[in-house]
Design brief:
124 residues, mainly alpha, Globin-like, 0% strand
Amino acid sequence: MSTSLFERLGGTEGISTIVDDTVENHMNNPNINARFLPYKDQPEQMNLVKKNTVDFFSAGSGGPVIYSGRDMVTAHKGMNISPAEYMHTIDDIFMALDKNGIDENTKKDVLYILWSLKNMIISQ
């Protein structure tokens, strides 16, 4: 039996670390940090964004988690995220995956998921 993506990402703990590292990357990325820096003054909102992201990826990767956040279109409505911004976001996620020692096949699976979400996020 093959190992689930959830397990390959380190379960809830591993995904939480990857999300924390990704958010840190976003904060330091001048191409997209304007969307994330306001959360520095809103720690409760930032924690909610992180929790929803962890739950979303945990549930979507085969984990025993139920995602109760908004759907992707609703969550990104009015943000008008450009294709370039989305690619910068993916780059930041991959830097976090690399930092956490995630193997190439697992990264391909993550990329597949991220690519499948793009039309629900870009230009909403």
